[in-house]
Structures are given as C-alpha cells and as structure tokens.
Specification:
Strand content: 15-25%
CATH topology of the largest domain: D-Maltodextrin-Binding Protein, domain 2
Number of strands: 11
Number of helices: 9
Largest sheet: 9 strands, mixed
CATH class of the largest domain: Alpha Beta
Distance between the termini: 118 Å
Structural class: alpha/beta
CATH architecture of the largest domain: 3-Layer(aba) Sandwich
Helix content: 25-40%
Order of helices and strands: HEHEHEEEHEHEHEEEHEHH
C-alpha cells in the first residue's frame, strides 16, 4: 500500500514540475528590444525628399521668358520654398545685369561674346535650349513665301508695298525690336545677312510684337517660334518653312541657343534651377510643348561667330 502511495505522489510531483516549466517559457523574438521600445523604422522606408528654397531673379530674353516662367512654376510647385522671379527686358539687359551681379541668372538669345561691353570671360554659359525665329506678317498681306533678298529689301526700306513681292497693293509696316534684343540680333545676323533695318516702330516684348502684327494691316516683324499662333502669318523664306525639323538641320538658318548665364559657376538655388532646366522633365516634355528644341536634338553646332559645324 505504501508503495502505491509513493508512486502516486511521484507522478503528481513530476506533472507539477512539467507544468511549471511550460509556464516559464517565453516566445522567441526577432530582436533584443524590450516590449516597451518603439520599433526602429525599416531601412526601406521612404525618406522625405529634399527640396530647394530661397529666392532668385532671372532677367533677359523675352523669347525665353515664356519657357523660363513655365519651368519656374513647375519647379516652385515641386519646391514650395523656392521663389523664381522671371523678367524680360531683352538679352542685352540680361547679360549686363548678370555680369554686374545685379541678378542671379541672365537669359540671352545670343552668346555673351556677341555683345559689346560684356565680360564674357567672367560669366558662365549654360545652354538650355534652341529656338527657331522667323519673319511674321499680318494674315492678309497676300504672300506666304519671300526670298531672302526680298526679306532684306523689305526691312531695309527698298520695298515698301506688298504688291512688289507678290502680295496685296498695301503699304508695308515694319515693326522692330529694340537694339538690345537678342531676337533682333539673331534675325539681323541670319535673316538679313547683317543688314541694318530701317528706323521703325519698336516694341519691347515679343508678346506685344505679336499683338501689333496681328492688329496692324500690312505689318511685318519677327518672332521666336514659341510666339507663333493663328493670329499672325509665319512666312517661309526661299521655299523653306519655319519648322523645328528645318532648324535641327540648319535648313532654316534663323535660330539661336537659349543661354542662361551666371556670374561665375552656378551655386545654390540658381544651380538647382538650371539643373532642373536641363532635366528630362523640361528637356523632353516642356520644350516640345512650347516649341523649343533640346540642344541635344540639333544635328549641327554653331559658334559665337555664327559658323556652323
């Protein structure tokens, strides 16, 4: 009987010890942190995107103005702390202001070497695009194609009536840009073979020129492709149409690089914005939407003297 009691007691003791061991066991963990610690963020968590901030001013070419304004709006939308002030005034103004250190970026249709009095060796060129330019007229002048000699004769005052070049019997009204304009310099150099236009009504901005040409019977002037629309007539020259494809091959001669100059190497917000101008977002999308070409799309190069290679 005693043996049975001891056997039962031993079994109960073993069962009790087994239960105690199970109760003290803990679930395995993947780390050494305690239950009260906040888990560390996963390595692949997205980091907050760094954004540019501050304020800069870009002044100059009115041919570039629409493009730079559109790019500035997109850039500021992605960088809420950045303010890009964009102003026109012409390429000459842009080059002089940036060389004086009065603005952060000088926009220009021409190389700094082409402008007298500009210290080209002190400012840095950033080519951000190419733009075609061409003669434009009131839609009812009665002619759509001129020879280059006829174009020169019109702007130098040798031809004063559209009937003399195959158009209507109507007086020609020449509208010029000011002498500081890069658009004017480009048009004179490549459209008029260096000839000096007659003294005529001058308008400061490309937008105003377009409006004047569209509203003035017999008017003729010149604009960047980015300002072409149905309110004016874009004229062909020697049978060549003013198209992007013709600019790429230099079949259409009247075109220019779009330069963004800085006083020394670009830094800070100016560098960030110029880098954005050269990004795929602008080069492959915005330029096309606004009738500009990427520099990389050109099949030719042009130096400051106007030589093509």
């Amino acid at each position: 009987m005693k043996k049975n009691v001891f056997a039962i007691f031993a079994l109960v003791l073993m069962f009790t010890l087994a239960l105690a061991g199970c109760g003290n066991s803990q679930p395995e963990t993947n780390g050494s942190q305690s239950d009260n610690e906040t888990p560390a963020p996963a390595e692949n968590d997205k980091k907050e995107k760094e954004t540019a901030s501050g304020s800069i001013t870009a002044v100059g070419s009115s041919a570039m103005q629409q493009l730079v304004e559109a790019a500035a709006q997109q850039f500021s939308a992605e960088n809420p702390g950045a303010v890009i002030n964009v102003q026109g005034g012409g390429s000459g103004t842009g080059l002089s202001k940036v060389s004086e250190g009065a603005v952060d970026i000088g926009n220009s249709d021409v190389f700094a070497e082409e402008k007298e009095g500009i210290p080209a060796d002190k400012i840095v060129d950033h080519k951000v695009a190419v733009v075609g330019m061409g003669p434009v007229a009131h839609p009812e002048v009665g002619v759509e194609d001129l020879t280059q000699d006829q174009l020169i004769d019109i702007f130098t005052g040798k031809v004063t009536n559209w009937k003399d070049v195959g158009g209507k019997d109507q007086k020609i009204q020449v509208i010029n840009r000011p002498k500081g304009s890069g658009t004017r310099a480009t048009f004179e150099k490549f459209g008029l073979k260096g000839a000096e236009p007659i003294e005529a009504l001058e308008q400061e901005s490309s937008g105003t020129v377009r409006k004047m040409v569209s509203e003035t019977p017999g008017a003729i002037s010149y604009l960047a492709f980015s300002y072409f629309d149905d309110s004016i007539l874009a004229l062909s020259v020697d049978g060549n149409e003013p198209t992007q494809e013709n600019v790429e091959t230099d079949t259409w001669k009247i075109w220019a690089y779009q330069h963004m100059y800085t006083n020394g190497e670009a830094t800070g917000l100016a560098k960030a914005f110029i880098d954005y101008m050269l990004s795929d977002e602008v080069q492959t999308t915005l330029l096309k939407e606004m009738d500009f070409l990427p520099v990389s799309g050109m099949k030719v190069e042009r130096d400051p003297e106007g030589n093509v290679k």
